[in-house]
Amino acid sequence: MSEPGTSAIVPGSQANHSRPILWLITLVAVALSLFQMYSAGIQPLGLFYQRSIHLALVMMLAFLMFPVFGPHRKRGVVGGIIDLAFFGGALLTGGYLVLYLDEIISRAGFWSQTDIVVGCIATITVLEASRRAVGLGMTIIGLLAIVYAFAGPRGELPWLSDFMPGIMEHRGYGLDRLVGQLYLGQEGIFGLPLGVAATYIFVFVLFGAFLESTGAGKFFIDMAYAATGRQRGGPAKAAVLASAGMGSISGSAIANVVTTGAFTIPLMKRLGYKPHQAGGIEAAASTGGQITPPLMGAGAFLIAEYTNVPYLEIVKISILPAIMYFATVYLFVHIIALKQGMQGVPRSDLPKMRDVMHAGWHFLLPLAVLVWLLVMNMSPMRVGFYAVISVIAVAVLRYAIWFFFVAPQQGQNVTLASTAGVVKAGLVKLVEGLELGARNAVAVSMACAVAGIIVGVVGLTGLGLKFSAMMMAFSGGNLFLALVMVLLASLVLGMGLPVTASYIVLIVLVGPALTNEFGVPLVIAHLVVFWYSQDSNVTPPIALAGFAGAAIAGSKPMETGFQAWKFAKGLYLIPLFMVYNPEIIIGGPAVLVAWNALIAIAALLAFAASLEGYLFTRMDPVSRLALVAATVGVFYPNPYAEVAGLATILVVLASNWLNYRRHGSAVTDPM
Hints:
By secondary structure, the chain is mostly helical. It has a domain at 588-671. Helix content is 74%, strand content 0%. Helix 9 runs antiparallel to helix 13 (311-339), helix 10 runs antiparallel to helix 11 (275-288) and helix 10 (253-271) packs parallel to helix 22 (544-553).
């Protein structure tokens, strides 16, 4: 049997695994994928059953794939014993909840000693699996969160409260209370982040694995090359535009990543983007889908309800900010293509679209099924199930037609032996796809499990609500500081709440202050809070959209999260521009609206160029600092500052273009 999964993401070297371990990895991975397919499309399971079984299988797979002393060292006797102990811990983590869930629920809040012991084992096992699959950084953050929960007068570590600043103080919690929160409740390890990973992230990662193993991935790569190969960064630009369209349908940034990312991320990697860049671009673009009319992830309906502004009006005023956001991501994509010297491919070296479509048009059918089901408002998890089924069915039908009808015309006889060989090869391909999908999901699932620990501590200590209530007081009447603090509060809330819930909580807490104390128009206050509520999708340490992109790209979740955070800077800048230039939202003279749109786009271009240090050619530090200052000037609510900022941007960019013309660069065509 060939080693599945080595053609894409290889999470853990196979060179140091014995053959029994390889077979066991395959067995657990296939079991995980089949379980996910069963719960996605045949028999949905309850929250704890779904998430606990998923986590147990993922951790078992992690301990098999990643030896305790590292992937490049043999296990040995000591390593084998340690791995076996943690493997048992993974089995206990999920099995205990599945077997005793009714009893655990019946004694909620009055946990038995066995509950606490198993909860401690589960937490340690999750942190160790995360260390192996994700990296030490995420594990340290989880440990710090646990230590913070213990740091209080009534906690296990009361002496630490002496070192806590006032805003961070809390009563402190004992081991029983913390374990109950992290393992036995819905706001800890088995909370929202793992719920996302255990449902539609996994099933769409599996969809991507089957796209690759059936040859559909190559078809989409060839099609993208034929369509955009002559442009620099063409597939990445197509990803940005596709995410805008898909995001307005799906209602979820993460669902957007796993649907469009299954196609676009491999294309970007093939073109030359680094894996973490490809995953970050897709995550940032997919997050933009949540601020794109008409649906805005259900946000348009909520904003209309809260502000008593007609729904259609909310859609209209959201169009320009959404265009500005995607223009920013698009510019980052283009600048990276220039900076990394990506060249357009000569037409003679590109596949012809007609030939590509003739050979693989049938692979468009799974995509059509996927989009159609999303438009029909089917749940993303069920959509993923049918998408996987459709890509398998298309691949089987395609090969069956070739084998029974085309091959005989080419002199290949259909015999019982050849048919058996084809069936065997098909089953091997099926197993490869199931294993690859499970392997690719390990890192993101473990990142989400540790994120659940952070979420649980935030909820237990009241840190999120304290931030929301106190940030406004700390602003000292300064609107800019107030907005920064709203942003920080939204980030903390976003760790434990979905985007919509985060928006609702935050607008209730800070909305009145923004409108009454700072004079921000009501609809703009709601848009600002709604935009800021998106940032938890792309801001580490809990960047769920970034983690989903990492799962598909085969990159480290935290690295991908930081890339997504960088590309999604429009989430921070554009709301500021709304506040200080309200005409782009509430309207005004056409000339003034056009001027504001022009300077905003210029400022976003300058910001992207200064952050990357590149536009037509490399920029010196002075030019980059000048662009940063000019961006601040454009955003400053003063017409003279706006004009000066725009003039500075034009001068610096013109100078950069002249420098390129004079000295050239690694690339021959700036646009």
